[in-house]
Specification:
Layout: H1 2-70, H2 80-90, H3 94-101, H4 105-113, H5 120-130, H6 134-145
Helix pairs in contact: 3-4
Length: 146
């Protein structure tokens, strides 16, 4: 009787190993396929990052030229009293000018008193504002409020 039980146990173990082997083979093949796909995706991401960096460098080199194209001489100057006079000419409050330029009221006052100076980007925005007339500025303010 013990011999039959041992044989039955061995046969069951053999069949289970056979089933498990077929199941694990399919999983191993899928795992290898996924690893290959992941490696390919990593290569593609690396290539795209290199292209992006190259385009970023190229764009960075061209960006200063674009700012200079807007201004004839390329050198933007800032004078505190000039900003205040232009703001008064346009009939704007410091708060309204700040909202147009994307700064705070206090920043405008600091610029006008000469305590601080605007950044290059802000000076470029001021230069664009200088080319605007009263109507354009009012229209922009109304568009911002709407």
């Amino acid at each position: 009787m013990a011999n039959i039980a041992a044989l039955l146990k061995q046969e069951i173990s053999r069949l289970v190993r056979k089933e498990l082997r077929s199941e694990t083979e399919a999983l191993k093949k899928a795992n290898a396929r996924y690893r290959a796909e992941i490696a390919e995706l990593k290569r593609r991401v690396g290539t795209l990052e290199q292209q992006f960096k190259a385009l970023e460098r190229q764009n960075h080199k061209q960006a200063p030229n674009a700012v200079q194209a807007n201004e004839p001489d390329g050198n933007l100057r800032f004078r505190a009293d000039g900003l205040k006079k232009h703001r008064e000419r346009l009939g704007l409050s410091a708060a309204a000018l700040g909202s147009i330029l994307g700064t705070s009221l206090q920043t405008i006052y600091n610029w006008e008193t000469g305590k601080t100076r605007p950044s290059k980007e802000q000076v470029a925005k001021i230069a664009v504002l200088r080319k605007m007339g009263k109507r354009e500025v009012q229209a922009r303010l109304q568009a911002m409020q709407a």
